[in-house]
Amino acid sequence: MWVFHFGGASCNNCDIEILDCLTPRYDVERFGIKLVGSPRHADVLLVNGSMNGRDKSRLLDIYEQVTKPVYVVAFGACGCTGGIFAEGLPFAGPVDTIIPVDAYIPGCPPKPEAMISGLMKLSETIK
Amino acid sequence: MSKQKIIPIGPYHPLQEEPEYFKLYCEGENVVDIEWETGYNHRGIEKLAEEKTFEQVFFLVERICGICSTSHPFAFANCMEEIGKVEIPDRAKYIRSIIGELERLHSHLLWVGLAGHFLGYDTVFMWAWKYREPVLDLFEIISGNRNSYAMFTIGGVRRDIEKSKFPKIREELEGLKKKIDLLTGAVMDDPVIHARTKGVGVMTREDIIDYAAVGPTARASGVEIDVRRDDPYAAYDLVDWKVITSPEGDVFAKAKVRLLEMYESVKIIEQCLDKMEKLEEGNIQTKVWEIPEGIGMGHAEAPRGEVFHFVKTDGSNSPVRHKIRAPSYVNIATFKKSCVGQTISDAAISLAAVDPCYCCTERMAVAYDSSTGKRILSGDELIKHSQARTRELKKNML
Amino acid sequence: MENNPFIEEIKNRFAEKIVEVTEHNPLRITLTIDPASLTVLAGVFLSEKNFRFIIASGLHTKKGFEILYHFSNDSEGHVINVHVVLPHENPVVDSLTKLLSGAEWIEREIHELLGIEFKGHPNMVPLISEGNWPEGTYPYRKDFKS
Hints:
The structure holds three protein chains of three kinds. By secondary structure, chain B is an alpha+beta fold. Chain B has 15 helices and ten strands.
């Protein structure tokens, strides 16, 4: 499962937890999960952070570039609902109002275990 | 005629409210100019804060940045206590300093790892992040969460650190010291790292003052500023530690300053624990009934430099105006000085040296030829460029 | 409260330019000054006294547009605010970018959020607003409706 990570207007907490998954303690590569640098290689689009007007258009661009079929995962409270920033001025809607979302991983930030569990559940539904 | 090319880095780069999008203007291998664009991460926090109560603002400012998630509440608490003229209990002071220093440890370890990654030393990346885990475990023991700790409140802290947790904290710190020794040795003794970082991305003292840069970026250029010493808050004037500086101003100096600062952080935490043992448990908060009208300027030394909060209150329970300045806001502007004149392969590490969280190159960096708009280099390739340079250097040294 | 010799000196030297001095506590002082003399005073702070520019905060209040330029004196731990009040209509103030490159971003940001004009700024292009709110509207003004 190759994952492309898209970070919106986030606080970086989710981003470091996602990177943390790659490092020795969690090591998601043993499950065949890998972060890739280009959306064209991705099976899963992992979106975290609240979306502002600028991110929204970039997210749509990226979503267009990803080879289909693609599974979108909304990561963290901000990705799922907008979280604490939902009342903010530049907020442009949670991820699922911009592109279709297949799985939600809530938390602020979700623990690495939560990300692994979420992606494993997603992979089971794909089978 | 040499053709100028533009290499954009970013746009996703989420340290502060406004992450950046860099365009490197290049002629051949050389960077001739750099331009930035921000706003991808604008969340309107300052405006949002005006609609929240002071207690809620703590949770909001904690989420400005996940890596230095204590420094913003720290500065905000300093600011509010200044307006309300609140004196906090000693035990709360020590707990605040412990949290602040643990955060510095995890943030610097994170930086060492990423710097290693940019230079092509993925082993350093993996090791440093592995050694960072015990620090996150300590946070989980103390606060219940690995990242956003929710420890601060006006007048003190929300949770005590009980005596039963001390042995575990001391044990982990002891282990961490050995790991820092190892990392410091690996960086200081490696000829390739010397070759890649010495004389690269140099910032002179004058540049630092001109751009008003702060934190390790400034201290690595011999500018001796540290809010913890200059305007002491929490327990920093009650324990013994020193400000680390280095005069060179290059990437190597910045790495050295950060590595040596980690020892100071361990020292501060150990002293805080010693002093806390003599204090009564549970006395961690002064009751604050109201915040009068006024303005407050609070600052705190985050891992990346000074965080500054300005709050204007009108006697109600929420701020009238809340201005926040994160350290990267001034540090990032210095890229114009540190990157221009470098080669493309040195750009990645020069940018990373300021520690603007991890480089946006993980995200959506694509390079365009300025004349045709054709794709040339992606962010990944930029890192590969940097890593290839290291390999070449290594080969020549053998 | 004992008087700070530095503030006394500034008060004597620039008596006609200083409107008001407020001391919040011994380490935090606000100098309200005539906007026309901003660059002169900021120059004194930066070059003569080695103060460090922290940031500027823009506010919209009943009095008009207020900007507080925060300076820090690191050897003594002071934070000194240089405070200017600009009129509601057509707020203009001199840019500090000639003295200090570090002021470039914050002036652009204040311009976008409050619509204050900075005279002499070299690169007044939007910093954060693109796609987030329309040009010509200023979200931090009190009359702003989203």
